[in-house]
């Protein structure tokens, strides 16, 4: 199984990759490296939508585990994703890439609200659109936000750049014998509860036939390799 031709892509980056080698927060030097990869991908003629998580700053579940109200903690997590979006916007614009941030929580001093038609226009004009604040509601994650924006922006694929190089049959951090899939179906991911994205995000991609490509963004040049159909990755799609 290989990917269909990709003209427009949604790239989802976990918040934790923005930390670089730090334990928390944003490492501007590493964000600049990521931005350079995004720029290189754009220069191949792709239209790029970006969604960035917030796990390097705050996760709602972690707050709830320490006794916070879950919804309140989730709103804090969404605000973290806006900070990451602004950091990535800054890094891209320093490289001369035009961008717009659209947030699902309105914040008109710093970015636009999510307006699909406007986002279309930005892409037509060659801008990278960074979607922040996930779906704008608690009890979701930015994976669901990424799947939602990929569907509404009619992206040809959802690329999930994370710290692991694909989808495994068990957690490779705990099981040295874990096996990575080259390809796997949405239904297998859901039935076996494989750790790719949360179930709502996988189901949304399945229902809208959006292939999910899971790869490590920590390795330099990997985004370009994956877009060229090379490199190590797992593709989630129907068989
Ligand atoms: N979040 C949310 N609704 C959304 C997207 C995000 O409530 O639509 C909150 C949630 O608390 C989540 C946090 O924002 O834990 C950060 O996002 P996520 O965990 O997806 O970041 P990542 O793991 O990709 O860094």
From TrEMBL:
What is the role of the protein in this entry?
Answer: Catalyzes the reversible phosphorylation of UMP to UDP.
Q: Which residues bind ATP?
A: 12-15, 55, 59, 162, 168, 171
In its keyword annotation, does this UniProt entry include Nucleus?
no
Give the pathway listed in the UniProt entry for this protein. Pyrimidine metabolism; CTP biosynthesis via de novo pathway; UDP from UMP (UMPK route): step 1/1
NCBIfam families in the record: pyrH_bact
| Protein's gene | pyrH
What compartments host this protein? Answer: Cytoplasm
Task: Please state what the protein is called.
Answer: Uridylate kinase
Record note on quaternary structure = Homohexamer.
Give the species.
Answer: Erythrobacter ramosus
Give the record's free-text account of how this protein's activity is regulated: Inhibited by UTP.
GO terms (molecular function) for this protein are: ATP binding; UMP kinase activity
Q: Which GO terms describe its biological process?
A: 'de novo' CTP biosynthetic process; UDP biosynthetic process
Please verify whether the record's keywords include Iron-sulfur: no
A single GO cellular-component term from the record reads: cytoplasm
Q: Which UniProt keywords apply?
A: ATP-binding, Cytoplasm, Kinase, Nucleotide-binding, Pyrimidine biosynthesis, Transferase
Q: Which InterPro entries match?
A: AceGlu_kinase-like_sf, Asp/Glu/Uridylate_kinase, Uridylate_kinase, Uridylate_kinase_bac
Say which family it is in. Belongs to the UMP kinase family.
Residues bound to UMP are: 54, 74, 135-142
Q: Which Pfam families would you find in this protein's record?
A: AA_kinase
Task: State its Enzyme Commission number(s).
Answer: 2.7.4.22
- HAMAP family according to UniProt: PyrH_B
Q: Which reaction does it catalyse?
A: UMP + ATP = UDP + ADP
Q: Extract the PANTHER family matched here.
A: URIDYLATE KINASE, URIDYLATE KINASE PUMPKIN, CHLOROPLASTIC
Pinpoint the Aspartate/glutamate/uridylate kinase domain residues. 7-216
Main location per the UniProt record: cytoplasm
